[in-house]
Amino acid sequence: MQQDTAQDENSTARQLRPVVITVIAAKLAVFALLMTTINFQPPLQSPIEVAAAR
Hints:
Blueprint: H1 2-36, H2 47-53
Keywords: Membrane, Transmembrane, Transmembrane helix
């Protein structure tokens, strides 16, 4: 009886593994897409640096 239960648990884990991998890959893809859409502002120069550049 315990062996059947252990086999059922292993079977369920084997069946869910592709689903878990797919969900993790989808989360990574969404994160990557969101990170590419972020617009970072360039660092602001202080007035002294601007004056020195002129």
